[in-house]
Design a protein that fits this description.
Layout lengths: L8 E4 H11 L4 E4 L7 H12 L3 E4 L3 H13 L4 E5 L1 H6 L1 H9 L4 E7 L15 H5 L10 E3 L4 H18 L2 E7 H5 L1 E4 L36 H19 L3 E4 L6 E4 L2 H16 L4 E6 L1 E3 L3 H8 L4 E6 L5 H9 L5 E5 L8 H14 L1
Parallel strand pairs: 2-3, 2-4, 4-5, 5-7, 6-7, 10-11, 10-13, 13-14
Antiparallel strand pairs: 1-8, 6-12, 9-11
């Protein structure tokens, strides 16, 4: 039987995300320029109107996120993107989206920080993404792609999950993935069966009017809403965990990394294996919900853990909580947009393996 050839397309990461969003049904985009994500609004500015959508370069990040709120309230699939300082400016609006139970996709192409920092790739926004970021008890479903194929596939998935849970979804990428060019398969979007948007503001002729808000002033009203939100986050933790692994079955040292860091770690792991070092990679694909149960299961075998991040230690806290003192969890990181090399990480793995 003859194998069918799969056609691959060479794309830049930011543009792959933008095209995937359009093919998944995004019809409203509002954003404001900031490096290293500028190819996304640039691409959207001409491609989205071609697809029958609306592109707006807003006057600020605050305006962009509130325009997304308005578009989402009408039932339209809406998206905004930015890089670290710009995402910080959007936090109030993201909290409003979560409080009003509105679906939206927000992508953070992370850059070095704190402050204005630099335009190099970083992973310093982990806390902001997975712990809520803005005010109030809320969570985002957070995806962390490590290559352009996942940038494509997870962007499409994000719109579906945002609609399914009526909740903002964040794609936590970084400057390296955004600027990287590599081939990917443009998988065709297949819309799953989703709940009807009977809550949307589409005009109330012939039906009772809908109200979209995050302000609840009645006695006990806000607490009741918060309990319902927590029930939703619990469902996410039960149903939406995604992870990947490499050589973890017989590993004596398990390296936990995500995104770009995991990509570089994987090269170092393969080299380590050739040298007889039994190291493995555990890669969370969802950062919330975090794959804590799988890490806890691996830790029961007393395997030693090493968390590698492009920051000074953020995800390592969640790894330590999952391990719960059963074994040692070490950390190695590079802050401020410092990019690791496979040789550097091979030496780090070798050093920590000798302690195992």
């Amino acid at each position: 039987m003859e194998r069918r050839k799969v056609k691959k397309v060479l794309m830049k990461g930011n543009e792959a995300m933008a095209e995937a969003a359009i093919q998944a049904g995004c019809r409203f985009y509002a954003g404001y320029p900031i490096t290293p994500q500028n190819e996304i609004p640039e691409y959207m500015s001409w491609r989205l109107p071609e697809a029958g959508g609306i592109f707006i370069q807003s006057e600020s990040e605050l305006a962009a996120i509130n325009m997304v709120f308005g578009a989402s309230a009408t039932g339209t699939r809406a998206m905004t993107t930015s890089s670290s300082p710009g995402i910080s400016l959007k936090q109030e609006g993201i909290s409003y989206l979560a409080g009003a139970r509105l679906p939206a996709v927000i992508a953070n192409i992370q850059r070095g920080g704190p402050g204005l920092g630099n335009i190099s790739g970083s992973q310093a926004d982990y806390f902001q993404a997975v712990k809520g970021g803005g005010h109030g008890d809320y969570r985002l479903l957070v995806y962390a792609p490590w290559d352009l194929q996942e940038m494509w596939d997870l962007t499409m998935k994000s719109f579906d999950k945002a609609d399914e849970y009526r909740n903002p979804v964040m794609i936590l990428s970084d400057g390296m993935l955004g600027q990287l060019m590599e081939p990917l398969v443009q998988t065709r979007y297949k819309r799953p069966k989703l709940p009807p948007k009977d809550w949307a503001l589409t005009g109330c002729k012939g039906r009772k009017p809908n109200v979209v808000k995050s302000l609840f002033m009645g006695e006990g009203e806000l607490e009741e809403k918060n309990w319902k939100l927590q029930e939703k986050y619990t469902r996410m933790q039960k149903n939406e965990v995604m992870y990947d692994s490499l050589y973890t079955k017989d590993a004596e040292l398990i390296v936990v990394a995500y995104g770009t860091a995991a990509r570089i770690v994987s090269s170092a792991i393969r080299r380590s294996r050739k040298q007889g070092i039994k190291a493995g990679l555990f890669r969370p694909v969802t950062l919330f919900p975090f794959p804590e149960k799988e890490i806890a299961r691996l830790s029961k075998a007393k395997k030693r853990f090493l968390t590698i991040e492009m920051n000074m230690g953020q995800m390592v806290e969640d790894v330590r909580l999952a391990v719960n003192g059963r074994t040692q969890v070490d950390f190695y990181g590079r802050p401020g947009g410092g990019l690791m090399t496979p040789d550097e990480l091979y030496d780090v793995i070798k050093k920590h393996y000798s302690k195992a």
